[in-house]
Sequence to fold (104 residues):
Amino acid sequence: MHATIRRYDGVDQNRSVELTSKVNETLVPKLNKLPGFAGYFLIDAGNGIFTSLGLFETPEQGMESTKIVATWIRDEKLETMIPNQPKITSGEVVAHGDRVLVAA
Fold:
């Protein structure tokens, strides 16, 4: 399994509810259609920092998701809400544990 983490700094804190809604309504369905998609999580860390975690079968699928997210930001005209390029970290998941989570 491959993880792609994107950290977004400087997100407009006054629009975090709007961002969360758009992610759930339009971005997650796009990512869900990608081959190898295993999961997506968006974390509001506060102070204008959002971090996303995408899980895929291969590194190539993770890279494709990064392209889709960048296109989504442009298409949804979110550049003023998300003004900075994300810091991206990706790599193989080498350990994990999970339980069934309550949906957000």
Notes: Strands lie at 2-8, 37-46, 49-56, 87-92. The chain is about 35% helix and 30% strand. The chain has one domain: 2-92. The helical segments are 16-32, 59-75.
